[in-house]
Amino acid sequence: MENSKKETENKKQEERNQARKYIGKAESRRFCVVESRVIDRITYQNAKVPCGKKRCTTCPHGPYWYARVWHGDKRTRVYIGKEFMTLNEFNLKKRIEKLEKEKKEWKERS
Ligand SMILES: [Zn+2]
After folding, report:
1. Distance from the CA of 60 to the center of ligand 1, in angstroms?
2. What's the 106 CA to ligand 1 centre distance in angstroms?
3. Would you say residue 90 lies in a domain?
4. 34, 43, 49, 110: which sits with the fewest CB atoms below 10 Å from its CB?
5. Considering only CA atoms, which of 83, 90, 82 is closest in space to residue 42?
6. Would residue 8 count as lying in a domain?
């Protein structure tokens, strides 16, 4: 039940973030969610992100998609990319890319 309470809180926070339109430099220093969706109980966020570099003139970057996941008892984000896909699709894509790489290496060796 704690989790659903947290989810409600996070949802409220997201709504607040969405309501806050991106204006000026101060805003460019924070992770700014422009869209969020929930699929199979996983929250996905499309956000503009600051890179942290002092001299960056193109901050924030993106928007990029992130999946909100629990890592033990901590909530973290998994970077998905510019194009939206679910966490399952993302993991599948990564697995395919790994196999393709292995195939290429194997071909080069033989
Ligand atoms: Zn930057």
Report:
1. 5
2. 38
3. no
4. 110
5. 90
6. yes
CA of 28 to the centre of ligand 1 (A): 9
| pTM for the model | 0.66
pLDDT tens figures, 30-44 = 889 999 999 999 999
Q: Does residue 96 sit within a domain?
A: no
Q: How far, in Å, CA of 99 to CA of 106, rounded?
A: 10
Q: Residue 28 has what pLDDT?
A: 59
Query: What's the domain count of the chain?
Result: 1
Q: Dig out the tokens for 104 from the structure.
A: 């290429």
Listed in sequence order, the residues at least 6 apart from 86 whose beta carbon sits closer than 8 Å to its beta carbon are: 39, 40, 42, 44, 67
Sign of CA dihedral 34, 38, 41, 46: negative
Residue 107, φ and ψ in degrees, nearest 5: -65, -40
Distance 84 CA to ligand 1 centre (A): 21
